[in-house]
TrEMBL record:
GO terms for molecular function: acetate kinase activity; ATP binding. It comes from the Bacteria. It is an enzyme of class 2 (transferase). Residues 48-78 are annotated as: Disordered. Its EC number is 2.7.2.1. InterPro entries: Aliphatic_acid_kin_short-chain (IPR000890), Aliphatic_acid_kinase_CS (IPR023865), ATPase_NBD (IPR043129). It holds the Pfam family Acetate_kinase. SUPFAM superfamilies: Actin-like ATPase domain. This is Propionate kinase.
């Protein structure tokens, strides 16, 4: 039986994560958010086949609730 585990490391202004397929321990995706709360925050998400990165300006609007999609987060493929 396979299952997934998300490992999260949160600091004062950054957050790192990995999503792992268990029990093999295969990495499905990983990400990093740096400078949380600052105007020049950086978001990077990687999978085996894709890397997305971009700036995420501070949002002062109720529209920021939909940050789950790459477009909402201002990410671009690399």
């Amino acid at each position: 039986m396979s299952y997934k585990i998300m490992a999260i490391n949160a600091g004062s202004s950054s957050l790192k994560f990995q999503l792992l397929e268990m029990p093999q321990g295969d990495m499905l995706c990983q990400g990093l958010i740096e400078r949380i709360g600052m105007a020049d925050a950086q978001v990077t998400i990687k999978t085996h086949s894709q890397k997305m990165a971009g700036n995420r300006p501070r949002c002062r609007s109720s529209r920021c609730g939909n940050a789950a999609s790459g477009k909402a987060a201002g990410l671009s493929n690399h």
